[in-house]
Design brief:
This protein has helices at 47-54, 59-64, 105-108; strands at residues 16-26, 30-40, 43-46, 68-69, 74-76, 85-87, 92-93, 119-121, 124-135, 148-161, 182-183, 192-200. It is mainly β and 201 residues long. The strands form 4 sheets. Strands 1-2-9-10-12 form a 5-stranded antiparallel β-sheet, with no helix packed on it. Strand 5 (74-76) and strand 6 (85-87) form a beta hairpin. The protein starts with 15 loop residues before the first strand and ends with a strand.
Length: 201
Amino acid sequence: MLDQTRGVVGDPNPDWIMGLRNTFTFFNSLSVSALLDIRQGGDVWCGTCGIIDYFGTSKATGDQRNDVVVFDGVINQGTAENPEYVANNTAVSLYDPANGLGANYWVRYGFGGTSEGSIFDASWIRLREVTVSYSLPQSMLANSSLDQVSFALSGRNLWISTDYPGVDPETNLTGATNGFGLDYFNMPNTRSYTFNVKLVF
């Protein structure tokens, strides 16, 4: 049964966030720098997950459509005046075609019914950035007008570890606004690479 009173089902604010950057230098010319980005806690509404469940196009609905489940809850074996609640022991089919589309679990309680089933933890660990740079030794520049020459190769958003089932728990439906924690066919963060050359005269 759906609760008739609306309530809070998730909080998009993380419990804490942390960034760790380490830089290693070898032979005074080669440098490797990495930024590890960590977010613990916070929830995201995965509307994408909910709607593809609703239409039966997700892997979960394909894997579970024949399942019979006993949901956690209670049933009243007494009367309205003298209720007697016991643990639920009624097995129900998630999807029995004989009961019609309205009895489909993901249609009845999914995207069009409740939001609670589409709320997921947004914790992550991601490799935000890695940069490898190399500076030519001064001995190679002795007979030139250059004081320094360096090369750098950088990559961003190279790896992520998260239990979030959507595309990326960092993206947001409303863009850079305070209405965050919303995923509805969002685009994932881009993985990018840059190469630059620095010349000092």
